[in-house]
Amino acid sequence: MKIIPMLLKEMAEEAQTTRKFLERIPNDKFDWQPHPKSMTIRQLATHLAELTTWVSLTIDTDELDFAASPYAPTITNNTTELLDLLEKSLAEARVGLEKTNEDELVKIWTLRNGDQIYSATQKVEVIRMTFCQVVHHRAQLGVFLRLLDVPIPGSYGPSADDAGF
After folding, report:
1. How far, in whole angstroms, is CA 92 from its chain's centroid?
2. Please, which pLDDT band fits residue 164 given cuts at 50, 70 and 90?
3. How far apart are CA 102 and CA 54, in angstroms?
4. What CATH number was assigned to the domain covering residues 3-147?
5. Domain ranges, ordered by start, for the chain
């Protein structure tokens, strides 16, 4: 079985759910955070919307060094901007996956901060980890929304907020 079609399918399926979560964020709650150690909804949702850019980053490079390329998130101010950022990130990831090949995906990709190496794993593993991060941060966003009494959409089936559940 070919891995690239499987990755494209998984990314598309997770994107449908992610869209449903992002579109529920109230525009007046972007600076809300449940705890001082937590991200604001703006920070969390922006990170979630741009996470899939790691797919093309991983395909097009052999490493990311935070010391040389510090993270600078895109600034979003409303749900429309978040959804636009998500679509842009997904399009970039799709192009990366469609242009690559299986041999490229088994090459090692390194995540570091200067001399400190966080991981050195196959590119396909980094892409899968990216998808896992999408699910993880989407779940965090679900908790944030629940605390704000915003109905939660279903992820892999109905949620407690879906009619008839």
Report:
1. 13
2. low
3. 17
4. 1.20.120.450
5. 3-147
